[in-house]
Amino acid sequence: MSSKKVITAYRPCVGVMLLNEQGLVWIGRRFEKQNDDGIGKWWQMPQGGVDEGEDLQAAALRELHEETGVTSASLIEESRGWYTYDLPEHLIGKSWGGRYRGQKQKWFALRFTGAESEITLKVPGHKQEFDQWRWARIDELMDLIIPFKREVYAEVIRDFRHLAG
To answer: Does CATH place domain 10-163 in 1.10.10.10?
Structure first.
C-alpha cells in the first residue's frame, strides 16, 4: 500500500481574456525560476485564485488589477461553465501549498477601456507575475501557452472567439 497522498481537489480560479478595441488579447510573459520549460518561454492571460465567498466577477477584476494594473475594463461575457486542468505530475503536491491537483476556472471576457499607460506589471503590494506584456491575435495564443494549460485555452478561445478581431 502506497503512503503517497492522493490530491483530488481543484483550486477555484478566475481567468480574464482582456480585449482591446481591435479585438486583440492581452497576454503577459511569465517569469519564473529556471525549470524544465525554460525562463520566459510561456505567456498567459491574467488568472488567479478566488477568495472564500468572493464574487467571481469581482475576483476577475481584482486579479486583472493585481497582475496588470488595469482598472478600466468592462464585462463583455462570462463563460457558461467551468474549465479544469491538472498540473504536471512533478508539480502536484508542491504548487499552492500542495492542496490541489489543478485548477477549475471560470473565465471572463473584458473590454479594455483605458489608455495603455494604465498597464503596469509592478502593482504595489502584489507579487509580479509577468516581465513583459503585449497584445496578441487570438490565433497566436495556443502556441504561446504552457502545454498543460492548452486544453483550457482551446476551450476559452472557442467560447470567446466571436469577440476577438
So the answer is: no
Q: Which residue has the higher pLDDT, 152 or 5?
A: 152
Q: Is residue 139 exposed (0-12), middle (13-18) or buried (19+ Cβ within 10 Å)?
A: exposed
54-99 pLDDT per residue, tens:
999 999 999 999 999 999 999 999 999 999 988 776 665 556 566 6
pTM: 0.87
Cα 141 from Cα 60, distance rounded (Å)? 20
> Whose CA is closest to 133, among 21, 20, 35?
20
